[in-house]
Design a protein that fits this description.
The protein has 406 residues and is of the alpha/beta class. The chain contains 15 helices and 13 strands. It has a six-stranded parallel β-sheet with strand order 10-9-8-11-12-13, with helices on both faces. Strands 4-5-6-7 form a four-stranded parallel β-sheet, sandwiched between helices.
């Protein structure tokens, strides 16, 4: 796997990379992940890192001009890995990884699978790194299409992304396969209201019976963090007991200052980075999950975590949100703080129906979004690009129930 990011970093894109590697190993395959110098090592995962660059020791999240140097080193490390450890498949994440992977594929004559997790130009626009009316936009859009079409196969995290590749970037339909983000529902599960639960609430300053709206993910404008804080301010007088548990990074100080300006500092708890293995513990303190992501092209795996935890889930009305939540989601129709506040109010008024809705969301995850199922679908793609008979049953479209086994 080629991962042009500071792996592992306790957020969505990294979780997909990690869980794919884990399930492939469980299904009997060796996986080496080539990635940037920065990042946490993960026990049991073969991670091969680039050398550092002297002027940049920070983690790279999203678009950055420093990634050019990181990617040059990533390409060199990929070639070194190919010389010492010949794989059967090159599995590239993100567009930079797919570009490096295409070169590596040509040099090694090993097929390339591109793990598409969102539009490159869409992400750069979301991060304000690129303007749609700027002179670079159209050349980069053309480059994005070239990278997409160069892969032997593409797997996407949503049906929406699959349609985007087929309809807007001209990818051949038979080369694109939907393998959605998934969740381990044995780990992400509702937390009992025991003494440890109340001790954890107390450690964060959460009143014992206060309703808690929980967010877990990156803190950024395109993730909707300002919208969430502004919505909380709009609901301050109507729901004085509600607390907002905001877990993630970076820019924690920036958003803490924003909460002060909005007059809700006493209602919001910022935890900073939460290690992935600790996520179920702290997410289990929530009563409602919120996913205010604004991006129209990227995945949103946190929604599946909320569903597995049986949390009624509020999200903006996007294609990916609809795909995961279906009719069980509580949607903000417009991407505004006012609309988000209205959806949160709907969730806070559920009363006894909250448990029923949460149970239905968890059942949907267990039925449709397991990593074992995703792993089998990935292996079927590997076999197809290698031109060998499938060794595992092809996965059904994930909206359908798998057949029961005796």
């Amino acid at each position: 796997m080629i991962a042009p990011t500071s792996f592992f970093g306790d957020y969505g894109c990294h979780v997909r990379i990690l869980e794919e590697a884990r399930i492939l190993r469980q299904l009997g395959h060796e996986v080496a992940i080539v990635t940037y110098h920065n990042g946490h090592d993960v026990a049991g995962v073969d991670i091969r890192r680039t050398p550092p660059i002297p002027w940049r020791y920070h983690y790279e999240v999203g678009s950055s001009r420093h990634k050019i140097a990181f990617d040059v080193l990533l390409g060199m490390t990929t070639v070194q890995t190919l010389l010492s450890w010949r794989p059967d498949v090159i599995h590239a994440h993100l567009h930079e990884g797919a570009l490096i992977g295409r070169v590596a594929s040509c040099l090694s004559r090993v097929p390339l699978v591109f793990d598409f997790q969102g539009s490159m130009t869409g992400e750069m626009t979301d991060h304000h790194f690129l303007r749609p009316d700027g002179w670079l936009y159209r050349p980069l859009l053309r480059l994005e299409g070239i990278i997409d079409r160069a892969a032997d196969a593409i797997i996407t995290s949503s049906g929406h992304a699959t349609r985007l590749l087929r309809e807007e970037f001209g990818c051949r339909p038979e080369r694109v396969e939907t393998v959605p983000d998934c969740v381990n529902a044995d780990i992400f599960r509702p937390r009992p209201r025991d003494s440890a639960y109340y001790a954890d609430r107390a450690s964060l300053g959460l009143p014992p019976e206060a309703p808690v709206v929980a967010y877990l993910g990156l803190l950024a404008e395109y993730q909707g963090t300002p919208h969430l804080l502004q919505a909380a301010a709009l609901l301050r007088e109507r729901y004085p007991k509600v607390r907002y548990l905001i877990m993630g990074y970076p820019a924690v100080d920036t958003y803490r200052e924003m909460a002060v300006r909005l007059g809700i500092a006493d209602r919001v708890v910022f935890t900073g980075r939460v290690p992935y293995e600790e996520a179920p513990r702290w997410l289990g303190l929530g009563d409602i999950g919120v996913a205010p992501k604004l991006s129209a092209t990227e995945g949103c795996g946190k929604i599946l975590d909320y569903m597995a935890m049986a949390l009624p889930t509020v999200a903006f009305d996007t294609a990916i949100g609809r795909e995961y939540l279906g009719e069980l989601g509580i949607y903000a129709r417009e991407r505004t703080p006012e609309s988000l506040a209205g959806a949160l109010a709907t969730a806070l008024e559920l009363g006894s129906q909250a448990a029923v809705l949460g149970a239905r969301l968890r059942a949907r995850v267990i039925r449709d979004y397991t990593w074992t199922r995703a792993g089998r679908a990935i292996l079927a793609v590997y076999d197809r690009v290698r031109g060998v008979p499938a060794r595992v049953p092809a996965a059904q479209p994930y909206a359908k129930r798998l057949p029961r086994r005796s």
